[in-house]
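Narrative of activities, Objective 1.

The group set out to show that a structural description can be obtained from nothing but a protein's sequence at a throughput compatible with the screening campaign. Below is one input-output pair from the validation batch, recorded exactly as produced.
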Amino acid sequence: MKIDGRKQNDNTKAYREEKVKKNKLLVEKAVKLLASSKQKINPSAVSRTITEYFSDEGKISSVGIRKSPLYMDILEAHIANNIENNFDIDIGNENISDCKKEKYKLAVKNEQLIRENRILNQIIKQENIPAPTKTTQPESLEQNDIPIQATKELLKIALSMGECYVKNDEVFKEEDGSLILTKKMYRRLLR
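Output recorded for this entry:
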């Protein structure tokens, strides 16, 4: 005897309402869990938390959370009530749009430096210039300290904007989850 699959794939109004209630409870649980662990609360973090801790109850994507006014209201209400707990890093008097502009400028400059580096490497290969030895010039602590401080500040801004997240002392991109900083590099920045 063949089982009627329509009952399992019900699309009635009652089923949709029940699904919305379940997802609302999942979003609320995830927000509470993130708040209790003092992590940044955004749709991506909520979706990731639901997948990691409540996957047996259901799943909802970050896009689904962003598109639903009901779920976004839950996130915004919690953020509005707990502003001091939502941002781990204070970015001073700068607002988010200024940070995004600065991020874009730095990305453009980074691309220019990468291009210049490639050109210089090609010139070095063509001219057979020997690579400098490590004993040519001792590095001072002040020369190394400046890039580390700049990197710390850029990381603070990126974390506060939700562009990346920290998991197990490694920094990942929010967009695709690719690794940005290894444990060793992240720990060196925290010193």
